[in-house]
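In full, the data.
>
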Amino acid sequence: MALREQDIKQIVAKVLEELKDQVGSLEKGRTSQASYCYGDVDDAVEMAVKAQKIWQWEYSLEDKKKIVDGLKKFLLDYVEELAVLAVEDTGMGRVDDKIAKNRLAVEKTPGPEFFTTKATSGDNGLVLEELSPFGVIASITPSTNPTASVINNAICMISGGNAVVFAPHPSAVKCSLRSCELINQYLTSQGVPAGLVSSLSIATLENARKLMTHKDVRLVSATGGPGVVKAALSSGKPAIGAGPGNPPVIVDETAHLEKAAKDVIAGCSFDNNLPCIAEKELIVVNCVADQLKRYMLENGAFELKGGDVGKLKKLVLTEDGKPNKDYVGKDAVRILADIGIKVPESVRVILVEAEEQDLLVQEEMLMPVLPMVRVSDFEDGLMMALRVEHGFRHSAAIHSTNIDNMSRMARAMETTIFTKNAPSFASIGFGGDCPTAFTIATTTGQGPTTPLSFCRVRRCLLHGAFRIV
């Protein structure tokens, strides 16, 4: 049964007080006695190395499955608490959507059952190929999906036999530590050695770099902007890099317009547009644009026109044309209030008609502000989508019933994620039949990560034996 928000806030207040004491002692240079929280990189990695060897060699596959399944059931009781804490910690997003993301990370992240062994036999004998853990993984996590990313990555990484040390975003330290604390609470209750899943408590660039380049870290996983991914790729270690996106969504003249309107609003507004896969700009064929807009205004959008558009841009863009961090992940109602417009709480998206070169189109805003650009036909829309996506090849979407249009866009965009006739979040398992991933490794090519992403292939050959036919 879900907790009331008042109850959750009381729990969060208690947790914050406990974490404050721990983080305070770490900032003064003292290492925490907690098994999940370290002020010193060397201490964290040393514990992770010891725990990983025990986890890999002393726990059977069946043991791992049982423990990971139990961990998922345990974490379900805390998805509400972590959601409230993430919003309070980062100042971004929506509690209801973060609850959904946390639940998704718990329920639809694959575990050890995802692994299979490949066997090939022939005249020369038998060849086995199995996936083996890297060892200790350094995981750099974002402020946009802090608790869901920790849960998702921790489950994936330990399912493959690894240990992980998280380096949380500076604005998401408390909620990241709480996520690690809960994971450790369950793991240690099952006899799993301390240090298998841990976090740095001092979130500095220096500490993150020290972790990524530590001699005993075997793999780096980085979710965030270009700077974070570049640092991971420069670490000298194998790396999984998520990287930026600016996902366009096209609506052509064949789309089911009412459904398309609802889906675009749902995807764009989910957690106030923080997910990297979320619809960032709407490209619509002109002959259906007015009708689509009417449906959007009936389903949670509010359109700005004239001088109010200028007020909005002055608020949400900095002088150098970048998104104003003070408004990243903020509610549409809050943003509108700050330019003097009061709207009902049901408004989830601010709709603005724009031209292609508008900064709202060109920049990944990470807020529920959706620029709508009209095009003459699908061909023009596709060419525009390719330009405004900037070649990141991250995510894109289309609403259409034209098979040729859907196929052509999918091939042309070459994005890691491509969604047809659904909100973008369906592509990470929320209403879609696929595993959940909060690290979409576009830069390094692994795609939506699973436990397989955090393992390496090892081959064993036995010559001249075990072939039985």
In short: Residues 25-33 have pLDDT under 50 and may be disordered.
